[in-house]
Amino acid sequence: MEREKSIVSSVLVYSKSQRIGIILLFGIVLVLQGIYFFIDFKTTAKTSKEEAVWLSKQKDIDSLKFQNKNFKPTIYPFNPNFITDFKGYKLGMSVEEIDRLLACRKQNKFVNSAAEFQAVTKVSDSLLKTIAPYFKFPDWVQHKKQYASPFSKTELPKKEKIAILDINQATKEDLMKVYGIGDKISDRILEQREKLGSFVSMEQMQDIWGLSPEVVEKLKTSFAVKSTPNLKKININNASVKELSQFPFFRYALAKEIVTYRSMQGDIRMENLSKIKGFPVDKIQIIALYLDF
Fold it and tell me: Residue 172 and residue 91: Cα distance in Å, rounded?
């Protein structure tokens, strides 16, 4: 018992400084408790002026959204032949249905009624019933009788046959009627014909300087070789170098080769032409018609 009293007395006996420290400690605890209960430590987010303006408009925006919940976009009349992927999606069509319509259009085919539209796209009856009232087809589809051809099948005008002229009888005026042939080119054609006496093939038009392949094809639709009345021939086995070089298909160098071959091999035959150095092999069939052997 005495021991316990001594322990209590030892605990209760503090120095002055210790008692002051304990009092200050209790004072600090009380102050902190008061601060915790009476001061709000929640952080408030700072908003800019611009954000504040937007927040003030939010109520108006929310009210407009509520009013537009039942809003349906206006559908204007359209030609179903030209439905795009986006347009079809908005109308409620599936990807497969849209692809069927686009495949039909790629074949240059058109649908001219709601029934044809459904037959091509395979859309459901309910969807067709919804979108068909907005289909707008061209006037001629709606009023075919008014746009019927004024000619019956038996009264259709016949196409006029193009008269094909003889190129060896053609005049300058005849040639100039072909689109692409002017004054100078027509003169070149007539000059070449004069040198040869007559053309033997329309392929010779390719040798006329200034004639494009397109114009040559047009010439072939209007002209043909029907006769060769003034055909000039040259004897390849007797003509001199000078005479051969004046022939439109031969130049001086080729004329010398012909005479050299002739002096070494004897008379030239048609089958020997390709053996002569520098001879235009691609034109043998035409050149041979101007030669005497």
Answer: 65
Residue position matching structure tokens 């209760």: 12
Backbone angles phi, psi at 68, to 5 degrees: -95, 10
Of the candidates 170, 161, 231, which has an alpha carbon nearest to the alpha carbon of residue 195? 231
Q: State whether residue 29 is helix, strand or coil.
A: helix
Query: pLDDT category, 151, cuts 50, 70, 90?
Result: very low
Closest CA to 223 of 167, 144, 176, 171: 167
d(CA 13, CA 225): 147
- Which residues, 6+ apart, have CB-to-CB distance to 259 below 8 Å? 240, 241, 244
Name the band, by pLDDT with cuts 50, 70 and 90, for residue 2.
Answer: low
| CA separation for the pair 99, 103 (Å, rounded) | 6
168 is written with which tokens? 């060896």
The residues pairing with 292 across neighbouring beta strands, listed in sequence order, are 235
3-state secondary structure 183-250: HHHHHHHHHHHHHHCCCCCHHHHHHCCCCCHHHHHHHHHHEECCCCCCCCCEECCCCCHHHHHCCCCC
Amino acid at the residue 94: S
The H-or-E segment that residue 59 falls in is: helix 49-67
Return the beta strands (E) in 73-218 as ranges.
165-166
pLDDT band at 27 (very low <50, low <70, confident <90, very high): confident
Phi-psi region of 266 (alpha: psi -120 to 50; beta: other; left: phi over 0): left
57-93 residue pLDDT tens: 766 776 666 565 555 667 778 888 888 888 888 888 8
**What is the pTM assigned to this prediction?**
0.45
User: CB-hemisphere CA count at 13 Å for 53?
Assistant: 3
Contact in structure between 259 and 174 (CB atoms under 8 Å)? no
